[in-house]
Amino acid sequence: MTDNRPLSPHLSIHKKVLTSIFSIFHRITGMGLSIGSIFLALWISLLALGQNYFFIFEAISAGLFFKIILFLWSIGVFYHLFNGMRYLYWTYGLGMDLKNVYTSGYVVLFLTLLSTLSVWFLLI
Amino acid sequence: MRKSYFSKWVVQRVTAIFLIPLSFWFIYHCVSFQKFKYFELQLFFQSYVNSFLFLVMMIFMLIHSKLGLETILQDYISSSSLKKIFKRMINFITFFSLFLVAVAIIKINMV
């Protein structure tokens, strides 16, 4: 394996179309959620360690910064979840014609927006 | 080599399928977690069903993350030595997180 092989997918030479943007965001949200899963592990650990340790989480979660991160995390979760379902559907070779690919993309965006807003309306 | 990539591809999708209902279950409870105090959260995880579902969700989530991150590495990092370092980091973080979750769940349920 040489070190200077071209990178794939060749992001820089592609024209930015909706389908590629969906794919890039699936990866970006995936990376964000991976970091989120580490924090979930830390959260349950603090809960197991006892009230004195869980206070650390309660202090952090009271801040605005935490709420902003939580909001972005919820968008990431819903986007990755709905777009992931779209990809699973494609695994069976279904809905892969251009019209359906675009329609399902818009459905993913709509469901992400709807779910995020619904959850936050319940939270507030 | 080809066979191992195929099995990773399958595992990535199988974990994804299981994560769909588990994520909805967890998000649904997250809404009420906001109002929960420490003892109410402890009580939530002292239920074997909740503990089991959370543990399974975390195991599948961490495996799914590990495989996804490895795919991204494969696609965007050309240096094989750098790739090796990142792969080791991902492995370590995945197993350490799994260890934390398992120990935490056991400890909560032993109280």
Radius of gyration of chain B: 17 Å
Question: How many angstroms separate the termini of chain B?
Answer: 46 Å
Low-confidence stretches of chain A: none
Estimated structural class of chain B: mainly alpha
Gross geometry of chain A: elongated
Helix proportion of chain A: over 70%
Give a short account of the largest sheet of chain A: none
Number of helical stretches of at least 4 residues of chain B: 4
Arithmetic mean pLDDT of chain A: 89
Describe the structure.
The complex is a heterodimer of chains A (124) and B (111). Helix content of chain A is 78%, strand content 0%. Chain A is mainly alpha-helical. Among the domains of chain A are: 33-62; 70-124. The model of chain A has no long low-confidence stretch (mean pLDDT 89). Chain B has one domain (2-110): 3 helical TM bundles of succinate and fumarate reductases (Up-down Bundle), CATH 1.20.1300.10. In chain B, helix 3 (48-76) packs antiparallel against helix 4. Chains A and B meet through helix 1, helix 2, helix 3 and helix 4 of A and helix 1, helix 2, helix 3 and helix 4 of B.
Short characterization:
The complex is a heterodimer of chains A (124) and B (111). By secondary structure, chain A is an all-alpha fold.
Structural descriptors:
heterodimer, A: 124 residues, mainly alpha, B: mainly alpha, 3 helical TM bundles of succinate and fumarate reductases, elongated
Topology readout:
The complex is a heterodimer of chains A (124) and B (111).
Chain A: H1 18-49, H2 51-61, H3 64-91, H4 98-123
Helix pairs in contact in A: 1-2, 1-3, 3-4
Chain B: H1 2-33, H2 38-46, H3 48-76, H4 80-110
Helix pairs in contact in B: 1-3, 3-4
